[in-house]
Amino acid sequence: MDWPDGYDRRVLVEVDSTNAEAVRIAAELSMPTWILGLKQSSGRGRRGRSWEMPDGNFAATLVMRPLEAPDQVALRSFVAALALYDALEAATGRTDLLSLKWPNDLLLRGGKVAGILLESTGSGAGIGHIAIGIGVNLVAVPDGALLEPHAAAPVSVFGETSIKLNPDAFLTLLAQSYARHEQSFVTYGFAPVRELWLSRAARLGEVIKARTMRDEFTGTFSTVDPSGNLVLETAQGRRVIPAADVFFE
After folding, report:
1. Which strands sit side by side in the sheet containing 58-64, from one edge to the other?
2. Are 104 and 46 in contact (CB under 8 A)?
3. Percent over 90 (pLDDT), the chain
4. Which of 191, 209, 68 is nearest to 127 (CA)?
5. How far is it between the farthest Cα atoms of the chain?
6. Are the C-beta atoms of 75 and 193 separated by less than 8 Å?
7. How far apart are alpha carbons 244 and 192 in whole angstroms?
């Protein structure tokens, strides 16, 4: 498999967090760079949650300097989700097992197999670099004892498909698919990314629950709007939600 043109890679035997490493080295990079950590001791998820990484699982971060406005830069989480979907589809040969869960999870047979964390340096209109962190349960699942009620249970690629993937080889698949979707995003904008994401969305048209830092909403998952917000049709009317944790009943 060929590595995509215009991207570099670094493979680390051990690292605290690939996103943290991305921040440390961002200023010295001359092109978008993938960082793969074969062992990760202090991985992070959304809202400061820890991300456990049993041996053999996948942790990588793409660090790059974006050119768009901050609201457009944040839409790369959808670009990464499509790339992750395509990479796992190519690795497993299965087209019937995967779905995307707003805002940043990939599901395999309905269980959480991967997550995405996008972080940035700088502020306001001055974003310096972004780090797109991706964790995938290739061979093992983390401890699910602390899951919130109705949260998707963790699953692994090996546990669900009996296919054992090598992290380094999987990185090449992911980098290839990301490069394709990134080119579409910078050329045509978010519209085709959004359309494809919605065609792969979990529970679209069904009743779900969205929990923000302050409120909880239950309603029909109507769409994701052109700004990437979740749109629910609730008993109190339409709700447009920019950030939340989503739960399936």
Report:
1. 8-12, 33-37, 58-64, 130-136, 111-120, 105-108, 98-101
2. yes
3. 81
4. 68
5. 52
6. yes
7. 23
Residue range 8-199 forms a domain whose CATH class is: alpha beta
Tens digits of per-residue pLDDT, 17-73?
999 999 999 999 999 999 999 999 876 655 455 566 888 999 999 999 998 888 899
Considering the segment(s) 207-248 as one domain, its CATH architecture is Roll (2.30)
**Segments making up each domain of the chain, as ranges:** 8-199, 207-248
Q: Residue 116 is which amino acid?
A: I
Q: Of 105, 212, 111, 210, give the one whose Cα is nearest residue 222.
A: 210
pLDDT in tens, 133-191: 999 999 999 876 555 656 789 999 999 999 999 999 999 999 999 999 999 999 999 99
Torsion angle defined by CA atoms of residues 138, 185, 97 and 100, in that order, rounded to the nearest 10 degrees: 90
Question: What amino acid is encoded at 191 in this protein?
Answer: A
